Amino acid sequence: MWRSIVVFFEIAALITVLRLPFVQYLLEDVHEEVSQWYESIASWQERKELSEIEQLTAAQREKLRPYQQDYINDIIKSRAQIVSFHQTFCLNDNINPFIHGAELAQFCQTIDSTHLLAARR
Question: Which among 77, 74, 96 is positioned nearest to 108, based on CA atoms?
């Protein structure tokens, strides 16, 4: 009986302490930090693949005009943009106002050589 009363008071004290604003603030910070860790771990592979395509296209991008370089740099910032570009200009042969001909074919071939499209197929 005595143990039950002590356990009840311990639980009540724990609930009271956990509801304090300072503790809530601390737990919120811990939650945000752990969420950032999970997000970082989850996006690690994509960041690795994006840096790989950035390295593969570095020589090709140097030969382009500045506005074309900016366009390609914007495309290779995310997997979604690369997949959209590949679908629109590499598979469907739509006209791209910024990059065309051999440059477009080489860029499409570089995209195909990476694993960025593997998850989408």
Answer: 96
